[in-house]
Protein: Membrane insertase YidC/Oxa/ALB C-terminal domain-containing protein
Amino acid sequence: MLSRACRLMSKNSFNGKVICVQEALAANCYVRSRDYHIASGNVLPRSAIKPSTLLNARFSAIKPITATVLVRNLSTGDGDKTALLNTIPEPPVIPQGAPEIADIVASAEPAFATLGLGGWTPVGIVQNCMEFLHIGLDLPWWGCIAIGTVVVRTVLFPLVIASQRNAAKMNNHMPQLQVLQMKMTEARQAGNAIDSARYGQEMVLFMKEKKLNPLKNMLVPLAQAPIFISFFMGLREMANTPVESMRDGGLFWFTDLTICDQFYALPVITSLTLFLTIELGTDSARMSAANMQTAKYILRALPLFIFPFTINFPGAILCYWACSNFFSLIQVGFLRIPKVRDFFKIDRIVTHRPETLPIKKKGFTEGIKESWTNMKISKELEERARIDEIRFQKAGKGPLVKTYKYDPTAPRPAGAANAVNAKKR
Structure:
């Protein structure tokens, strides 16, 4: 180790020569010899440089030396060098209990690409996002599924706003729409295609004037359908592969996301939240269609219908489905706040009394019967129109139908004409 400090006087020198000064770090330290080599410039002899003279002298301005490199050689004595060479430090001791490389590699999670998962398909993109959240952010799998669901539903929130605006307008104009619809239905049932088409055109003009569109109410289901299918298939493939970390990536009682819930709690929660979502969602987005009540009853029965199938789904799928339903409930409740509706320019829903509506509310059985009757009438009208078209084609292309005893287009003899005239007299 070096115990001296060497200072190169680059701004001051004697007669254009570089000067190196040694200063003692401590007063009681003795001065050892140092070997200094300068790449360029003149070098003073070691005996000609005295530390006391160099420290006390006032140096005059000299020309700077360019490209000067100072190299200091190790000035340790030969005895010290031998001691350094003979003294070889011992290698560091390996700490006890350190993990082996094989154990570290074995405990690492394989990439989805090595498991045949991921890719650029919609299902693969979902799996890649799940892998990024789990590996990149070090989140458990239930947290990845919940965050992915919230992000996707937040992206679709503008479509929900547009659907709610249209649904509120259609609900507020329901009496006028029901009048036109009732007239159109009566004309269709009577077989009057002209009046039915006229009332249908009036309904289209009325909806265009009020900026109503029944298809906007289907924006959210149509947008959510491919996303739900992608999540469903992606999580099912991850559970069936299986991804080993998903075996303990759950929460509470469903720690293993690769198997179905043995307590049937997740299927029950999924069905209940789906029922509440349908009940509140259809109530806030009522339509003027005559078969809306029937469709609402069918949607209410949907959770009961799918329950036997959901009990066999892996926990990952049910976790996503339950998170999506909870988010929908929060979203519906949020959009029921008057100030929120005013902020997003959603009209206040007008409550119509059932007795003031042209189309009276019917029960489930009556609604089913009416729908079945309308379907039969529509089918009969279509069959009648098809038969009329066939008859028209035959009349235009087929042979003439004989309705006289003689051919009216053939020339008649003069005697026969006189006989006919005499008979008339």
Remarks:
- DSSP finds 15 helices and five strands in the chain.
- The CA atoms of residues 253 and 261 lie 8 Å apart.
- Residues 367-393 form one domain.
- The first strand starts at residue 4 and ends at 14.
